[in-house]
TrEMBL record, chain A:
Protein name in the entry: ABC transporter ATP-binding protein
Matching PROSITE patterns: ABC_TRANSPORTER_1, ABC_TRANSPORTER_2
Start and end residues of each ABC transporter domain: 22-256
Top-level division of the source organism's lineage: Bacteria
Entries under Pfam families matching the protein: ABC_tran
Molecular function via GO: ATP binding; ATP hydrolysis activity
Keyword Nucleotide-binding: yes
UniProtKB/TrEMBL annotation, chain B:
Topology class, membrane: Multi-pass membrane protein
Family listed: Belongs to the binding-protein-dependent transport system permease family.
Domain ABC transmembrane type-1: 59-247
Transmembrane segments: 67-91, 98-123, 129-148, 175-202, 222-243
Record localization: Cell membrane
Keywords of the record: Cell membrane, Membrane, Transmembrane, Transmembrane helix, Transport
Biological processes per GO annotation: transmembrane transport
Main location class: membrane
Keyword Transmembrane belongs to the record: yes
Pfam families, alphabetized: BPD_transp_1
Originating organism: Histidinibacterium lentulum
Protein name: ABC transporter permease
Amino acid sequence: MNAGSARPLDPALGKAAAPPVIEIDGVSVRFDSAQGPVDALSDINLGIAAGSFTSIIGRSGCGKSTLLRAITGLIRPTSGSVQVQGQSSADYQRTRRFGFVFQGDSLFPWKTAAGNVEMPMEVVQGMPRAARRKRAEELLRLVRLDGFEDHYPAQLSGGMRQRVSIARALSYEPEILMMDEPFGALDEFTRREMHDEVIRIWRSRPLTVLFVTHSLSEALYLSDRIVVMAPRPGRVKAVIEVETPRPLDPSARTSAAYLRQMTELEALLDA
Amino acid sequence: MRDGASPLARAAGAAPALALFLAVALAWEFGVRLFDVPAFLLPPPTAILAEMAGSSELLLRNLGATMLAAVLGFLIGTGFAVLLAIVFLYSRAAERALFPWAITIKTIPVIAIAPLLTIWLGYGLAPKVAIAAIICFFPTLVNAVKGLRTVDAQALEFMQVLGASRAQTFRHARLYAALPYVFAAAKISSSMAVIGAIVAEFTGANTGIGTLIVTAGYQMDATMLFAAIITSSLATIALFYLVTLAEKACLFWPEARIDV
């Protein structure tokens, strides 16, 4: 079921059959805990096609977030390798950067919305102040927060803060965007709004998205492919191609194909 | 919110405190006169005010010496504590080696080392500054160590994804995270610094509110004692207020202030 790394035309790579931008080859991560070693990830093999939208779902503790962190190099795999555009993720990280949107409030409360978006441009590219500000304003317009440039995170709603997080992650033009349960803390309505936003933004630029969630409907609504993971040890249980294209239409949530795949996913997660 | 209140509302809020203060002062004034309490035991407030006005030049000169020592000690103690907290942040070994020393310094009663510092550093400004600095050092160290580490774990991961250097992470994140904690400590230690300077003056100094207090004590001059105490209290309140103003200027983002 998993995409082989050397077969760019493998149907599991997605409809676009683009070459894989990320190749995960036999990655295992083992943590030492007080109760002995824990296999957070065990022999993960996955290829992520360029420009695709892939969701990773599974129960808590199945290693979804660990997988994202192993790909970005925040966690070093115990064994196996991650290749990003043919480079090791450490080498990739030296030249290009991953975009990263976190679940919680990882914005700096002492920086305004614009300040938070500007910060990576200063850190990564050393961009001059005026250029940073101009670009931050553009990005905040992209996430529909024009007029809120000078608001501090504490003055924004949860959904608006995640919009700032997305703008911040896009500020240094990453090719790959990691989203770690970004809407987990939002209410259902704000969350649906954010889904359509994410799809719109993803369509507007050449972006590969890896999206960790524990919501089946979220995964089905957003992605090309869904990677289903299982815990103890963290492993890939199945890779599902989503049949319904992203319609940006809430009624898609009641279509026959959607509901059938939902049932399939439910069964996979319960098994 | 405290800061949002209009001046009028704030004045109204202070009314009960002012009323009680006036009532106590009036009771004191008339009680002392009514029961003929001798002035060397308890002088009436008007006599204290008269003493403060009459000896204002003497009081202010000595207050200047004390406050100079207190402010210098406060700045040195706070600055050194913050620097050491930064060293601890980047070196666990330094933290393990030095933290027991910091705790030991805290456990030494300042009143006991004051004479020692006078022997070492003389009767001038130096021993007073040292005592004030020692008093300010520990609370600020503990708070700064904590504050520098309160940055959200995901925010730190994000800095890592960006490939930010330690200096960049410090400048964008840790510095601001520590500020509310450092100011919470500084507000407490600013008044402690004045007490420290006065205690140092007790054991030997040429000038200062502490020297005035010791001399007035020998002479059983309760009026002068009260005048000195009130003068130093007012100056301490002024210093606290200055630190609060600096805090307001530095903690510019919403919900920045913490109450420790």
